[in-house]
Design brief:
Length: 127
């Protein structure tokens, strides 16, 4: 029996020179291959991806280099419209409050090893 092709589309955002973003992107090899992977380095690219058909199969992984990035994400995403894994820069009270307003499926810290993010992505890609 042939293995079914994964129908999930994965959208990944991290700024161009973000080394933590590169580390996380390298770890994506541990998840089932998505139907497509969009790597966005600018927020306008994220907006373009969100307008493409197949949004119901989209999973977004967003890396905030600064807490202000979370506000920028909020301006692009409709709350709850796409499952989001949000990587935040710190555990500051304001950062956490802003992050939770985005209704993410999962929150993680930017300076971690991302094993938690990969585990969550593996589960999300299987469902």
């Amino acid at each position: 029996m042939e293995k079914a092709v994964n129908s999930h589309r994965l959208l990944f955002f991290a700024e161009k020179d973000d080394l933590d973003g590169e580390r996380l992107l390298a770890a994506f090899g541990e998840i089932p291959p998505p139907a497509s992977l969009a790597i966005c380095r600018r927020l306008d690219e994220v907006g373009e991806e969100l307008r493409l058909p197949g949004r119901e199969n989209l999973i977004a992984v967003l890396m905030a280099a600064r807490k202000e990035d979370i506000s920028r994400f909020q301006s692009v995403f409709e709350l709850g419209s796409v499952p989001i894994i949000l990587i935040i820069p710190d555990r500051d009270e304001l950062t956490l409050k802003m992050a939770h307003q985005m209704l993410p499926r999962f929150l993680s810290l930017k300076n971690g090893d991302f094993s938690d993010v990969i585990q969550v992505l593996q589960k999300m890609c299987r469902s």
